[in-house]
Write a structure and sequence with these properties.
Structural class: mainly beta
Radius of gyration: 13 Å
Amino acid sequence: QVQLVESGGGLVQAGGSLRLSCAASGRTFSSYVMGWFRQAPGKEREFAAAISANGYNTIYADSVKGRFTISRDNAKNTVYLQMNSLKPEDTAVYYCAADSMRRYSIRVITTAYDSWGQGTQVTVSS
């Protein structure tokens, strides 16, 4: 089992930046895929970005491509989401998630991920 704790959310103006962090514990961090998802009020949780165990492969949702960057530091057991050029429609609770069954094959559906953090709120004002 993997335990995940997110941090770094907050209130930012449109066009601004935030960096989210997610600290993991419980299993060898360098052995599984990590992802970021988000859920806006009244909407379903949606995929944002994911990264393979070795950090070499990444996938982004079209809505964040070119603005968000996912990265990981396996020595620190931490995955990051750098969010630039933020828009009001990026407002959501952001969750990090672990797919402990896969090392290099990245999935974009919520059911592929078996461990979740508690979420961190990101609010972008216009």
